[in-house]
Design goal:
The complex is a heterodimer of chains A (148) and B (362). With 148 residues, chain A is α+β, with helices and mostly antiparallel strands. Chain A has one domain: Alpha-Beta Plaits (2-Layer Sandwich). Chain A has 4 helices and 5 strands. In chain A, the strands form 2 sheets. A 3-stranded antiparallel beta sheet of chain A has the order 2-3-5. Chain B has 362 residues and is of the alpha+beta class. Chain B has a single domain, classed as Cytochrome-c3 Hydrogenase, chain B, CATH 1.10.645. Helices cover 46% and strands 14% of the residues of chain B. Chain B contains 12 helices and 8 strands. A 3-stranded antiparallel beta sheet of chain B has the order 1-2-3. A 3-stranded antiparallel beta sheet of chain B has the order 6-7-8. Chain B has a two-stranded antiparallel ribbon with strand order 4-5. Chain B starts with a strand and ends with a helix. The relative contact order of chain B is 0.19. The chains are: A alpha+beta (148), B alpha+beta (362). Chains A and B meet through helix 1 of A and helix 4, helix 5 and helix 6 of B.
Chain lengths: 148, 362
């Protein structure tokens, strides 16, 4: 039995360096691996949508036609699932938290606007793809007809 | 017989960190009967298993409770691994146990602080939480999160702790141990703390066994039972594991058991950090749980044994997921020991069983 068992600790607290910080003047440096928020390198993104399907809270929206990638910071739970599954490693987890916000809005990333030549090339690729699909469909139908 | 009065206790009360309501039937200053009522924070998380696939559900289980967060994700992952026959890499098992024991330290320190606050020892509360902060920093450094860690997953763990970082953790724990021993001296040796806790709310060994009490609450009554003794995962590789037992069964014994468990956890982490093998940390998970197949798993959470059950239905969604949490068992013991004590001792008794209502209601 006894009294004043915390003597050393209390004296240390009284004369030592404070444990707390004078926030916001003194800010704490985040660790290298702290999960702050997800950042997208949009030019490397191929809009495959795997991140959108993996996200447990459906916070990510990938729009291939619109060439955008967006995340809802209020829905994101920083689980890093998207970062782990991205085949192009274009998603990274930044170690800083996002600043306070007064409105709930998406963080939108948009790819560079397409030039005329790129649009033409895209149209050409799409046409070739449609042709390939049509051919494969016709071949499958023919096979089925002969088989039947 | 005096006139009986009913005093409502909670759901909002200074000593309660989480909402539980008790109707205390009083005869003068003495409690005759305590009738608990829960259901203030039910979120229906087990039902959510129908909406989230089995890989996503691990993030839901983490959110069952903020204090036992890692334990729940670990228990769920273990269950799904049994269900699908996945073998977890050895290194991942070690890392899981290291994080689980760290979360036990953080849970017990949080609880010790609340108890100190409960009996009016404010500075002791501050010191407990100051030490807990170091554990939270370790969590943030190794997993990126402070409370919700998202570290474990079905098939392994999401991130490796490099050996240099593990050595750093051991150094931090060494420093913490010195401070912690001083702190535990205040809990166990201070006469005012002793006067407040000794002989209050005694649960006998027979009652503990009858009511199926789990965790430190049960061990403080002299029952030697701990799921870690089963040697699941990396616990099997420990050189020696003897559960911490108390014998008096009163509030003091419960504090003592938890205080010693923190030191035990520090020893476990140091032992595993020195033994940890190299290798992969994640096993590739393919396919879905078979239809109709069932699996169970047990885990020693900071508050006691937690039981998990899962049944597959052939799709990526589970058919059923059930969790039996330690506090749902311990509430029975709490109402038992509340009978016959003074009203002034009620907060101490409720605090020392360490109720976790978020877990209980899910």
């Amino acid at each position: 039995m006894g009294f004043f068992k915390l003597g050393t600790m209390t004296l240390k607290g009284a004369f030592g360096k404070p444990v707390t910080r004078m926030y916001p003047q003194v800010k704490r440096e985040p660790f290298a691996y702290t999960k702050g928020h997800v950042v997208c390198d949009i030019e490397a993104c191929i809009s495959c949508g795997i991140c959108e399907r993996t996200c447990p809270t459906h916070a990510i929206k990938v729009d291939k036609a619109d060439r955008t990638w967006s995340i809802h910071p209020f829905d994101c739970i920083q689980c890093s699932s998207c970062v782990r599954v991205c085949p192009k490693q274009c998603l990274t987890m930044d170690n800083r938290y996002t600043s306070a916000s007064t409105a709930k809005q998406m963080h939108l990333y948009r790819k560079h606007p397409l030039s005329k030549a790129e649009i033409e090339e895209q149209a050409k690729r799409d046409a070739e793809r449609a042709e390939r699909i049509a051919k494969a469909k016709a071949a499958a139908a023919g096979k089925k007809a002969t088989g039947a | 017989m005096g006139k009986r009065t009913v005093i409502p206790f909670g759901p909002q009360h200074p000593v309660l960190p989480e909402p539980v309501h008790l109707d205390l039937v009083m005869e003068d200053e003495r409690v005759v009967e305590a009738i608990p009522r829960i259901g203030f924070i039910h979120r229906g998380l087990e039902k959510l298993v129908e909406k989230k696939d089995y890989m996503q559900f691990v993030y839901v289980t983490e959110r069952i409770c903020g204090i036992c967060s890692f334990g729940h994700s670990l228990g769920y992952s273990q269950t799904i691994e049994t269900l699908m026959g996945i073998e977890v890499p050895k290194r991942a098992e070690y890392l899981r146990v290291i994080w689980h024991e760290l979360s036990r330290i953080h849970s017990h320190l949080l609880w010790l602080g609340l108890t100190a606050d409960g009996f009016g020892y404010e500075s002791l509360f501050m010191h407990c939480w100051r030490l807990r902060e170091r554990v939270l920093d370790i969590f943030e450094q190794t997993t990126g999160g402070r409370v919700i860690l998202s570290a474990t997953n079905v098939g392994g763990v999401n991130r490796d702790i490099p050996d240099a970082e593990l050595a750093g953790i051991c150094t931090v724990l060494d420093g913490m141990e010195t401070d912690y021993r001083q702190l535990s001296g205040a809990f166990l040796g201070d006469s005012s703390v002793n006067n407040r806790l000794r002989g209050v709310g005694v649960l006998t060994k027979e009652d503990a066994l009858d009511l199926c009490i789990v965790g430190p609450f049960q061990r403080a009554s002299g029952v030697s039972e701990d799921i870690r003794l089963l040697g699941l995962g990396a616990y099997g590789d420990l050189a020696d594991f003897v559960p911490v037992i108390g014998d008096e069964g009163d509030c003091y014994a419960r504090v003592k058991v938890r205080i010693e468990e923190v030191l035990q956890s520090i020893a476990i982490i140091k032992e595993l950090a020195s033994k940890i093998p190299d290798g992969p940390i994640m096993e590739q998970v393919k396919g879905n749980p078979e239809a109709g197949r069932e699996a169970t798993s047990r885990l020693e959470q900071p508050r006691g044994e937690c039981f998990y059950f899962a049944r597959g239905n052939g799709t990526k969604f589970l058919d059923r997921m059930r969790i039996r949490t330690p506090t749902s068992q311990n509430l029975a013991g709490m109402t038992k020991i509340l009978q016959g004590i003074d009203l002034a001792d009620v907060p101490m008794v409720i605090l020392t069983i360490d109720p976790c209502i978020s877990c209980t209601e899910r």
